[in-house]
Amino acid sequence: MLFSEYLEFIQSDKLGPNGQIKASTAEPTAVIGASLSRIDGPLKTTGSARYASDHNFPGMVYAVPVGATVASGKIRSIDTSTSEKMPGVVAILHHGNFDPVFRNASGGRNSEQRPPFEDEVVYYWGQYVALAVAETFAQAQAAAAAVKISYAPDAFNVSTNLSDPMPAIGASEGPRVLSHRGDPEGVFTSAPVKIDYTYTTPAETHNPMEMHATVAIWDGKKYTLYESSQGVMNHATVMYQVLGVPRENVEVISRFIGSGFGGKLFPWPHSALAAVASRRLNRPVKLTLSRKMMFANVGHRPRTQQRMRLGATPEGKLLSLCQDYRNHTSINDDIRENCGEATPFLYSTANLQVSSALVRRNVGTPTPMRGPGAVPGLFALESAMDELAIKLNMDPVALRLGLDTLTDEEKNKPFSSRHLKECLQVGSEKFGWSKRTLGVGSMRKGDLILGWGVAAASWSAGRGVAEASVSLRADGSARVSSGTQDPGTGTYTVVAQIVSDKTGIPVRKIQSVLGSSSLPPGPTSGGSTATATVIPAVAEAAVNAIKITLTAATTTKGSPFLGKQVKDLAMSSGRIHLKNQSPESGIPFEEILKLGNIASADGQGKTGGYGSDTDGKNFSSHSFGAQFVEVEWDPGICRLRVSRVVSVVDAGRIINAKTARNQMAGAIVMGIGMGLLEQTTYDSRNGHPINDNFADYVVPTSADHPEIDIHFLDIPDPMIGEYGARGLGEIGLAGIAPAITAAVYHATGVRVRNLPVRIEDLITANVAV
Amino acid sequence: MDSFTFTRSTTVDQAVQLAAKSLTAQQGAQVRFVAGGTTLVDLMKLNVERPREIVDINSLPLDRVEPSPAGGLILGALARNSDVAHNAAVIRDYPVLSQALLSGASPQLRNMATTAGNLLQRTRCVYFRDTAHACNKREPGTGCSAITGHNRMLAVLGTSKDCIATNPSDQNVALTALEATIQIQGPKNKRSIPIHDFYLVPGSTPHIENVLRPGEIITSVTLPPPVAGTNSTYLKLRDRAAYEFALASAAIVMKVSGGRIQHIRVALGGVGTKPWRSFEAEKVLEGHAPDRALFQRAAEAALKDARPQSENAFKVELSRRCIVRALTMSTKSA
Ligand SMILES: Cc1cc2nc3c(=O)[nH]c(=O)nc-3n(C[C@H](O)[C@H](O)[C@H](O)COP(=O)(O)OP(=O)(O)OC[C@H]3O[C@@H](n4cnc5c(N)ncnc54)[C@H](O)[C@@H]3O)c2cc1C
Fold this sequence. Notes:
Chain A is α+β, with helices and mostly antiparallel strands.
């Protein structure tokens, strides 16, 4: 582990960053922090992991939705005469003949509030307006293409200029102050050094490899839904209401997920379409989205427009910070992108304002995308910081170090564990930042110009409520289960590691069972909180299962521990032994279970929310990081590539170095996509996301993958709970785009404030060709 | 996708006969040959191509790469892009072709894609590929959605008021610089067409992209004997490092002798409605001493008639820089 490398920091932080917090974590065994391959890896690499759409059932039919070809209007008529007569067609469903679908009013989070086919109104291009169901996929596709729909189009707006029109003050979407302290406007006005720029980030589409899909089965009473879901529990909670049945009559299964990036957190309308069709036809229904539908129907990161005003002293003291932003949302849903997430506490300043407004557009409903809010928000904040450093003629690392604070000035609480300073310092050293020369285009590598940029990163740390169950079985194995899921992040492996740590049973003998709403309720895989949330529940369940085994050891005839006290026994290395003696002196736990004729010792565990078992409520918990980026610029052919990234992250304790690194590397490459390539473009004449395919929506390829160097500080956060792990699915993306644009400026002299950086922006660069 | 019949042809004559009943060999053809299928099947799934009959030509003996009697090279119509790219004679005598092929698509696609299929690949214009939008190329007379829409990837040379679709191929740009000839067999006769005359600019009939008539099959592409002492280079510029069509590309075949450019062929990709031979650039270069100023003048001449659209003005400059760099590279490797 990198632990040793950071011994210095850890030692100076033994008592926590503020010198007053007692570390709550016992030193775990070596399985924690180990670089373990995913236990589900072989299933995936051999193709035997079954994803949602891999499920087939006798009598199953295929459903293909028809998308609207207007961005706003009313359906005038739907002509199904041709499609209904086509071979294999079972039904063509639409608002005129659909069964009731309901809104969820009793908990759970849905994506689109409007149930599919509710009425004849179209709010965005691609909105489902009909569903063709047929015996084969090809027949359903052909039938869907043959449905003729005429519309009475209405006026619509997909403009990327979010000032047009401005939301009215007082309207639900109107400007709202999210954070305020001191006199930000007044102090800005009189500040000696000012930065005042507007930054925009485009709509981005999640595009996980695996398309959304639902296979729905109705057995006359109960629905079983095979989904690609980042939240099986929430999905079931929403769908029972949407379908109008009792909670126990919906089971959601999502064993393997070809990633989600947030796009699969909440149910989308196709799930209801498939479920209702299965009930109507009394046959299993498979509905798989096309890549094209992925761009219109299942959310996106909304476009943001952020005005940043920074007032500073010539020495680099931040006098005032204002972030006034707006983001687009759909006509029916109020989705606020929390761009100001990190702004109030990242740097020390006495005067601050964050305000937010929503701007309606005729687009599908936005949804969280990896690092929602903070990632576009940090693009603006960190770009502005870089511009301030340049204006002050200061090193951007030094500027940030000077503004570091160990108190969350928004909440007036100390951070539970903040090491942004160390991230910047370690990153500088790893990257070689001191060799940077200031001038634009001043660094060379052969014929190429190099640009170096840096940005800070932050992501919230949190923990929800969850339950888990652990069974120690008489065959010497263990089973751990929770109604959470593994969207490719490594959760299967992490929960097994926790059980292994507690019991000493090797990971290979531990079966992880996730991905069903019938399991003990587990967390949604979102907000980088799944690990922090599920760990304490699993740990407690394991401890309880051990207690049951120890009790059996003291009460079972023939047990060497008969008559002993449970408190004097322990379980380690998979063996029951006297606490004050070595594991070898005891016997394997399964011997006890066999003696007692017990199939398995089942322990339950529960996680309370953040701070329920620590002093966390008195602290502010966040992860931090520093991103250093090098770009290579070939002005002769206007070619810009990211060549090197150094990323240092403070995300609490690392449970599995390999899956953690994997999360980081994936996020960094995604950040390169955000910085240089990705942008969902809506055609202004009809609202169609016109680049709705992988040739026109360009994401990084392997050839774009730079040299990536990832360092974890690996300092446990004493307030997040046992093990001190904060989670890091998202922070790797934060800060990459502004570090890229800073490096682009350093190389080319062009400051790009509207992402992504494109050849169009650079071709005018005034560097000698 | 519509239903279709599928026939595997065993002889070239049979394939020609099967296809001869099609009313056109252009957009809307009722009968289509399938080779690698990497263009055709995609477009059928999108309902852009709706043939009633598919003639599989993959068992025809047209997959060889062999020397021509004249000392050039014959590329069989069914030779896979990967096989051509890695062919020793191609690498030695026509490196520009190998480089162009390897810059295109992905290894998997190149293993399927064929020489003739690549010649006939269709534009990537998003409006052509989506039946929800008007497109003169897909449905003549419906209008061009691209001119007033998103046209960043589209052409600046050879456009018309009815169509600005780019020919997206890399291979075809190299073949144009190499002055390849296309061998065609039809129901009545065989013909041989220089690649420059094979493609048509859109004008008012963008749905007619080349000179092929119903039933005609491409049997091979012939490369003329390599000109002794030439260098050739393909340079492709795009947003990301791999697996993307060209924003601008250039194929150069150049011979410098006695300090002067003696043989020069310049072809451009990513900017033209067909693989673009720049006679204008060649005229500037021919007979002169190679230097940067000359290359810049050649690039200016090549793009003199460029007509950029709302989103692709940058391609004019990008194409110029591509030409200058490709010419410079060709000089260096001399
Ligand atoms: C994702 C993707 C990325 C790509 N990227 C690139 C790129 O970067 N650069 C690039 O240049 N190309 C690229 N391509 C295009 C690719 O090169 C072409 O699809 C391929 O060359 C077509 O060859 P094929 O044999 O598969 O053609 P097919 O799809 O089989 O046929 C294409 C057309 O040619 C006709 N045809 C085929 N053979 C004959 C014949 N012998 N005689 C007459 N007609 C014939 C068919 O009827 C059909 O109309 C890409 C394609 C895809 C799908």
